[in-house]
Amino acid sequence: MTAEPRATADRRTFIPLDPSLAPPGTRAFRDAGGIPADQWHADQNGETLVPTHCCFCGVQCGMYLRVDRGGKVFGVEPRNHDINRMRLCPKGINAYQQVNHPDRLTAPLMRRSRDEEFREVSWEEALDFTVAEVRRIQQTYGNDAFGLLGGASLFSEKTYLVGKFARVALKSRHVDYNGRLCMVSAAGANKLAFGIDRAGNPFSDILLTDCLLIAGSNVGECFPVMTQYVWGARDRGASLIVIDPRETAIARTADIHVALKPGTDSAFFTSVLNVVIAEGLTDENYLAAHATGWEEVKAKAAEYPPSRAAAICGIPAEQIVQVARTFARAPKAMAWHARGIEHHSQGVENCLSVISLCAATGHIGKPGAGYGTITGQGNGQGGREHGQKSDLLPGGRSITNPEHRRQICEIWGIEESELPPAGTSMMEMVWQMQRREIRGLIGICNNPFVSLPNYQVVKEGYDATEFHAQFDFFLSETAANAHVVFPVTTWAEDEGVMANAEARVVKHNKAQDPPPGVRTDTWVMCELARRLGAGDKFDFPDSRSVFEELRTASAGTVNDYYGITYERLEETGGIAWPCPTTDHPGTPRLFEDGKTYHPDGKIHLQVVEWHPPMDPYDDEHPMSLTTGRTVAHFLSGNQTRRLGALVEQTPRPWAEIHPSHGFRNGEPVRIVTRRGSEVFPALVTEAIRPDTVFVPYHWPVPTAANALTIDALDPRSKIPEYKVCACRIEHADRIDEVPAPPVAPGHVAYPETQVSRTDPLPPTSPQGRGTSERS
C-alpha cells in the first residue's frame, strides 16, 4: 500500500503521512493526523480503496469499497474507523454487491395506467409526464392533493431537499418520511424531556459504565457491530440487563433478562422507579437541581408497586426489584433502547419512563452514565433533522413556530405566506390517499408495501392515487405499483453525510460513477423543481452545494451543523452535533454541565400512565404477535433480498413459537390476526414467551408480517404499533411461498438469490436457548 496524493479542485496541498505509522487497515487515519483517508490507493492490479461507511444501520461502520482499474466497485474491506474497528456484519460485507447488481434500474420506467405494462422511456418523457400530472392534480384539487414521502437512508443533503422540494416546488403541506416508522417515539420523548432530539452519550461511553440496560433491542442481530461495546463493558465487570420478550443472543448473556409481555414496557419501568423510590435510591440532590415534574412522576410511580406491574407484564415481581437495585446502585449506569419499546401506541410514554429512571438515579450526562436510542436506519438520526418530517423545518425547527418559519423563509427566499403549515404522518397520508384527499404522490427511498402496517389498507391507499412516482435503484414492491419509476444512484455513486445513532455526522464518499441512464436523487428533484417553476431555489449542482445551504439553514439551532464541513469530516472521522463553529470539536456527550436544551436548562419529567395495546386480546386472539429484524436482512429487504449470501443465510421468514404449542420445527403454522392470516414454518424455541409469537418483517405478501400488524398509532409520535397485536396460531397444511423480488421489464430474477427461497425450513438461528436445529 502506498500513499498517492492527488490534486483536486478544492484541495491541492497535503500533509505527508508516514505509512509506517498508519498504514491502511492498521490504525485510524485521523489518529495519525495525516492526509484525509480518501487519498489512499492500493497499488496492486490498479485497485483503489475508497473509504466510506456502510449504507445500512445506524451504527454506520467504516469500510473501504474496492474499485477496479475500470472504475467499478467489486469488493469491500473493513476499515479501522473508531466506530467499528475493522468489524462488519453480514450486511456490511455484502453491501457492495448491490452497486453493480444485474437488477439495477438503468432507465426510467413509465405507464399511463396501472393496467398497462411498464416500458422504458427517456428521462425527458418521464419528467414531462410527472410534471404534467403534478400540475393537473394540483390545479384540479389544490396543492395539498399531492404529497411526498422521503426516506431515512438518504444522505442528509437529500433529506434536506425532500423537505424543501415539497414545500417550495410542490407547495404542499404533505411531506413525511419512513423514519416515522423508526425513531419518532424516542424523538418525541427526548424533545419533551431534554429539549433536544438525539442520544445523550457516544457509544464509547458504554465501555465506561458499570451497568448497561438494553430495552427492546436485539443488538446482536440488528446492530451486530455495536456488541463490541457491550462485550467491552462486560469485560470491565459491568452488569447487563436486557428487557425483551425473546431471549435474544444478547439477552442470553445478560445478568438479568426480563421477558415481559409485549406492550407493557411503561408499566415495568414505572414499577422499577417505584422500587428505587421506596428503597431510597434516588439522587435527590440531582433531581432538585436539574429536573421539574419530579413530585408528579413520583406520585404516579406509587401507583405501580411490583405486584401490580408483575401481573401486567407477566413476570416475577422479584425481577422488578432486582433491576431497580442493580441499576440504581451502580456508580455509573446507562440505558439504551430501540424499536422494541418505541413501536407502540404508547411509544413516547415508554421512552419517557426510561428517561425518568435515568434522571431519578442521577445517571445523566456523565462518562459511562446516560441515555440513548439505537437508530435503525443509516440516517435515522440525520434523516429527521433537516425538514422532511411533516412538522419540522431544517435545524429541527418547528413548522408551527412563527420565528422559525420566518428564518427558513428568509434562507429559502420565499414569503412566509408561501410556506405551507404542518402536514400529517406517513400512515395518516395513506389513509388520506384512501379517502382521495391526496391524489398524487412521489416516493423516495421507501417501500411502504412491505414496511407499513396493515398491508391491505396500504395497497388500497396507493391504488386510489391518480398518479404515483417512485425513486429507487431496484424495482421495489411499491415501485412496481407506480406510474413512473426514476432510476437513481446507490450510496456508492454519490457523496454525502449521515448522522449515526450517536449523532456523529460521518461522510460517505463516491466510489464509482453511476451506470449510464442513472441520475442522483438530487439531480431529479432539482430538475423537477425547475420544470415546476422553482428552479432558482434549486440551483444545486452536487451534494456539496446542498450541504453548504444545509449548514447555513441549521446555524444557531439546536441541531447546529454550521461548524461541520466535508474537509473536517474527512480529517476527523466524524463530528457530533451541535457544532456551531469550524473550530468547535462537536458535542459527543450532552448534559455534562447539568443543563438540557429547554430554556430553564432542566429535564422536564413527564407523568406516564400505562394503557393496554390497541388490538385487544379475546378468546379468538389470545396471543401477542411481535415483529423485528434478522441479521441478514434490512428493513423492507428490497436490497438484501437480492444478495445471494444473505438470501442463503436467511431465505424466508418464520414464526418463532414456544414448544408448549405442540409444533415441530419446520411445520406450517398459521398466524391469524384481525387483518388476515399467513402460514410460516415454525421455529420452535424456549427462548420466547409462550403467549408470544415473533415474525421477521423483511418480506412482501403473502409472507409479509405487516399484512398482519395493526395500523394503530401513538397519538404524539404517530408511530405504528408494530410490536404488539392480538393473534392466534393454528396448524396448517402448506407454507406460504416467498415471492421473488420485482425486476424491470425484460429482466430475469437474479437466479443466485432465488434457489434458497423455496427452502421450507427456518434458518438455524442465534435467537436463543433451545432453538431447534435443522436436520
From TrEMBL:
Region described as Disordered: spans on this chain: 1-33, 378-399, 738-775
Residue spans of biased composition, Polar residues class: 766-775
Domain 4Fe-4S Mo/W bis-MGD-type: 47-103
Pfam families in UniProt: Molybdop_Fe4S4, Molybdopterin, Molydop_binding
PROSITE patterns per record: 4FE4S_MOW_BIS_MGD
Keywords tagged on the record: 4Fe-4S, Iron, Iron-sulfur, Metal-binding
SUPFAM superfamilies for this protein: ADC-like, Formate dehydrogenase/DMSO reductase, domains 1-3
Classification via PANTHER family: NADH-QUINONE OXIDOREDUCTASE SUBUNIT G, RESPIRATORY NITRATE REDUCTASE
UniProt name for this protein: Molybdopterin oxidoreductase family protein
